[in-house]
Amino acid sequence: MPAPVRLDQRLAERGGVLELLRLPSALFAGVARLRAAGYRRGWLASTRVPVPVVSVGNLSAGGTGKTPCVAYLARELERRELRVGILSRGYGARVASGHETSGHASGRENDEARWLRSILPAVELVQDPDRVRGAEILIERGVEAILLDDGFQHRRLARDLDLVLVDSSRPWGLPPPRAGGPPLAACLPRGFLREPPSALARADALVLTRADQVAPKVLDELRRELEVLAPGCPQLVGVHRAARLRGPAGPEDLAALAGREVELVSGIGNPEAFERTLAELGARVIAHRVFPDHHAYVARDLEGLGAHGRWVVTTEKDAVKLAGQGCHVLGTEFELREGASVLAARLDALPVAHARRARAALHEGLHG
User: Fold this and answer.
1) How far is CA 347 from CA 65, 111, 266, in A?
2) Nearest 5°: CA angle at 73, between 69 and 76?
3) Within-domain flag for 285
4) What's the start-to-end Cα distance of the chain, in Å?
5) What average pLDDT does the segment 126-136 reach?
6) Burial class of residue 358 (count of CB atoms within 10 Å of its CB; 0-12, 13-18, 19+)
7) Backbone CA torsion sign across 149, 333, 114, 348
8) From CA 368, how far away is CA 365, in angstroms rounded?
9) Residue 311 in contact with residue 209, Cβ under 8 Å?
10) What is the pLDDT of residues 234-244, one digit of tens each?
């Protein structure tokens, strides 16, 4: 069965009835600016918790490669011997089998959380729309640093470091229009932005993801544009590299994709990036069945795929919902190519958690 046309593909086009959405988009942007001014002037309050909070967010509604970046940051904090907790809203969450006490009261997790749990077994995970309450749950569990996943717009929880991801291949959330020209930079509902681009000025650092998937000239132009929007803000440059391949019978060598005809299945924010990654590995992509982000798969979604011995390849995020379907699963990892020293300095400068200071004082008292 053909996959439905994605909303981002429709919105990427210009002209016609879509332009009627420009007025509500302008109203959305105006409300976002007023809200930001409320926090800036102190009319809206942020709650600070006794552990450092690192926010990882973006302007657009998904698709920046945020989850692998969160995993990368969790490992960096673990290297600093901190007990790490990841806090997210839990969009599209379902009951977490065997982990009913791992999230908020309902024990629900979405596909990103289930993937993070599989690769970061020592990290505490909480999904709660009330981020302050979720942070308090993590602190009760003894975490010493919190990664606030998708936190740029969720300012009720104060943060010590605000990292904002910008996807180099589609910086404002939408793919390029079929007729050519730059992607549209518009707020919801006309575009995919949750705030105007000028909001980037409050970031502590910008992280340009998938930088290897655009031409150097395009990346340079984007960096100049971001410097205008956020003058002096550090720009870190990263890639999402293919790291592992798992087949129905177990691990496979990535080299096995070279020259092989494959069919793809994905329900992620940027399916084109997934397809480019397979192509870079030498695979011949025959078809790509694209579904909306966080799609809840049913059996018929894969009907007709895998004929003629072709591999059906999906992402690790989708694989948690496609178990037992005979798919090959491609895993990617975030890698920082530029700005690692800047990030290290920012992480090293995080305030030590109050709980760690208390334990250290107790230890000194016992041995003093």
Assistant:
1) 20, 27, 33
2) 140
3) yes
4) 71
5) 96
6) exposed
7) negative
8) 5
9) no
10) 999 999 999 99
When the pLDDT of each residue in the chain is averaged and rounded to a whole number, the result is 91
Please indicate, yes or no, whether residues 262 and 319 belong to a single structural domain of this protein.
yes
- Residue 21 falls within a domain, yes or no? no
Tell me how far CA of residue 175 lies from CA of 87, 154, 221, 356, in angstroms.
29, 25, 17, 45
Cα distance between residue 52 and residue 43, in whole Å: 23
- Cβ atoms of residues 133 and 71 within 8 Å: no
> How far is it, in rounded angstroms, from Cα 85 to Cα 4?
36
Integer-rounded Cα radius of gyration of the chain: 21
Share of the chain above pLDDT 90, in %: 78
How many domains is the chain built from? 2
pLDDT tens digits, one per residue of 188-206:
999 999 999 999 999 999 9
- Say whether both 183 and 53 belong to one domain: yes
Query: Cβ distance 314 to 266 under 8 Å?
Result: yes
Report the amino acid identity of residue 122: A
Checking if the pLDDT of 105 tops 80, the result is no
